Amino acid sequence: MSGDGDITRLLVDWSSGDEAALTRLLPLVYDELRRLARSHMRHERPDHLLQTTALVHEAYLRLVDQKNVRWQTRAHFFAVAAQVMRHILVDYARGRGREKRGGGHSNVSLHDAAAISTERVEELLAVDAALDNLATLDPRKGRVFELRYFGGMSVDEAADVLNVSPATVARDWRMAKAWLRREMGDG
Amino acid sequence: MDPERWRRLEEVFQAALDCEPRQRAALVDEAAGGDRLLRQEVLSLLAAHDRETFTSAPAFEDAMRVLEATSPSAGWRIGPYEVVQEIGRGGMGRVYLAARADETFDKLVAIKVIPRGLDSDEAIHRFRSERQILATLEHPNITRLLDGGTTDDGLPYIVMELVDGQPIDEYCQARDLSILERLQLFQQVCAAVRYAHQNLVIHRDIKPRNVLVTEDGVPRLLDFGIAKLLDPTTAPSPGTVAALRPLTPDFASPEQVRGEPMTTASDVYSLGVLLYVLLTGRRPYRGPMSSPAEIEQAICEEEPEKPSVSVPDDSPHVKFRRRLEGDLDTIVLMALRKEPQRRYASVDQLSNDIGRHLANLPVVARRDTRRYRTAKFVRRNKIAVAAAGVVFVAVAGGVAATIWQSRVVARERDIARLEQAKAKRINAFLQEMIGYSGQTVPGSPTRAKGHDATVADMLDDAAQRVETELADQPEVKAEMLDTIGSTYSVLAKYDASARFLREAYALDLKLYGPDGRATASVMYQLANLSYLTGDYTSAESWIRKALPIYRKEGTRPDFELWRLSGMLSDAAFIMRARGHLDEAEALWLESLSYGSRLDPKHRAVLVSDKTFLAQLYMDRGDVERAESLAVDAVQDLRAQGAPFGLAQALIDLGNIRRAQHRYAEAESLIEEGTARYARAQGEEHPNVAYGLMSLATVHSAEEQYDRAEREARRALAITEQASTSAVRQAAIVGVLGRILTRTGRAAEAEPLLRQTLATVEQKLPPHSNATASALGALGECLAAEHRYGEAEPLLKESYAILRQLHVPQSPALEEARQRLLQVSAHAHQQ
Lengths: 187, 830
Known about the structure:
The complex is a heterodimer of chains A (187) and B (830). Chain A contains eight helices and no strands. In chain A, 72% of the residues lie in helices and 0% in strands. Chain B has a six-stranded antiparallel sheet with strand order 1-2-3-4-6-5, with helices on one face. Classes of the chains: A mainly alpha (187), B mainly alpha (830).
């Protein structure tokens, strides 16, 4: 695949602090995740749900030249993926919000086409808005929440990406969650 | 919030979380000092923390589903189609709204992509051929399969007509349809399923979501046979059966839940669930159905409540309750029986029973008896194949029986006619022409036996004299040869008969030419002789030569019309034996058409034509036509007090009642017929055997196998002792073989059934009901021994024969179809 080298270098650059590298990485990772998801979707039984972690890991293996990176690079890749996932989910949620239920075709023996529930859609939109506010108040807590919530990362992985101690991540995480929950109002 | 305040807020919040919960309030109070706002903010954060519900990475896990749902849709090319959007997904794949990319987007289709590659040439071939079968389904209530193929990355897809409609249950509720309207709508669904079954396609996934009703009230069935197309077990990839459990199990049949092969009976079941839902607003099972074990428990063990009882008090269906009691309860529960063979034998029967209910006629469905509910008959007789059999045994067994029985009747009738006409003539000839002065010739047919010797002696004597004494009177000699030959035939001395008839024929040809009346008469006699000796090919060729001459002669005033009528009737017989059923029917109808012009004595003979015609209709599975003629014949014969004919007609009508599942009537009719035969001809007469065999098939249909077996064995013993024809015996052996198969003794049945098949194949034309029946019986037997590969071709042939011979609504045809489907399913699973 062309661009493997690019992605690897961009990832290394970004993990060494080059924020501009991230803007170039995002669309590349985004495309790969979509491509992989599509290919999986067509090949797997629909009742056999592929885990997102596996998908991101597969994208990582495909995009990044493992020999030329440190082990922390995987965590950085997942951090990119976390942002990509946030985009994907929020875009979907916004789309769903616009769509009026019951419109469209009632045909062809379907189960519900919705990938996620309406309540979930509402939560995603609320989290997204509140998370923007949190990031303004406390960028690191915003990152921690994004990595964990949208990126599925463990405390240790997030600590690697952010270059802080796991204990700090844990404390940021509980503060971020409590604050977001309160901002979102409901329980 | 300024950074300093944010820092303070976090400090207090974290400290509070780190200390003992009991000390939290005190800690916050102290840390906040007098800052009431800070205190309040920390407390609200702590409260939010306590009820916080984000799990470690919840959104992340959703992402995959969203990716799947959004990634492929727009712009994806599937074959010549371009996807507009995903419109759904089910257990069997995803469905996209799409349009042909090379056309304007005004013609939209639905495309189902199967999420599983076809991994072998065989699988690809199977997918293609299955698709082709489905594409041939053309019915106003069935969604067309338009196209299919494989995507660029090798996934099979099918393209279907797009239907805009509402699931049938929602439709009925939304429009508040009456029971009548619901039943009529349901019958339309049945018609579509029936059509597919006739084309050997089983739906396999009937449920409200697959039955959409359009704006103008037309039900459209979706996904016909798609389940099989997508069923991994149809592809050679073992070990995936468990994954096949239906995602919406409520409509699945017990056999489907158990992973056993599905048949048309499975669709009958699912239709039963659908009807249940339409009438009651709820599913038939109450038990939990969240795990596979619970699903199996509910569907395979739980007895559904009667629909009338099931309707909840607060449901809008409550107004139906009274209407549901009785017939509709019985009909729905009959469709829902656990054992496929105890449901309606076909979708048609289900639909017809609803029709009978609507017409206020008695329904066929019977209440389940306690015995079945407790005995779980299916467990004892788990051979899936035997399942389809009950009615088939009945109908096909009866068909085989009528083949030989009709010959018996024909001979008796011939005796009667000859005794009336020829025997007297012989006497006259012998006395007048050759001065024979022996004893008088018999008068009464019922005393035939006692007179045989006399007639035979006389004939032997006459035969010798004809040559010497009539040499100079060729016309008289020819007539004498004809008469002597015919009479020998009646006495079952066929060799002698043939000798004299051939001599008469040669002489007539010389005297009158090939179109002479006398020549035709001898040809007619030769046809009958050939028929009686089982040489149907010769019989046909003789009768075809004689027919036009008789028809021509029939228009002359000096020709007795009853002769023409009788000849047409005999010709019909021969045509039937040769498998030319349409010709046979036309000939019998022609014969009957002379009825009003015959004198009462000869008109009485026509009743046998009614009997034969009824048998012919039964041979075609046309039960309805057969019934009216047979009822007529019984009435006529009772009025005439004719013992033989009545006995036969009673048994025939009994066989028809059996095909109609009216077993009690069938039993009493056949018992009366058999008793009449026994009284008139003795307990050991082959006709009694025929009656017993018919009884055996009734009892077999009623699953009273012990009784059926006793009757079949007794019938066999009679025919063996009476050394009756091989075909007759074969028919009885066939019935016995089926009984053995169905009672778990297939190994014992097999040699018997092979012998039966060999006999009918040797003696009868290949496309006969008897052959189909024998093939079917052997196929059923082999399938019961799980030798599906061997059984399938036999059942295919049997079905092919019946399909040629039978009318579409024939129960025997339906049974053969079911059986074939079932065995094919097994064969391909092996």
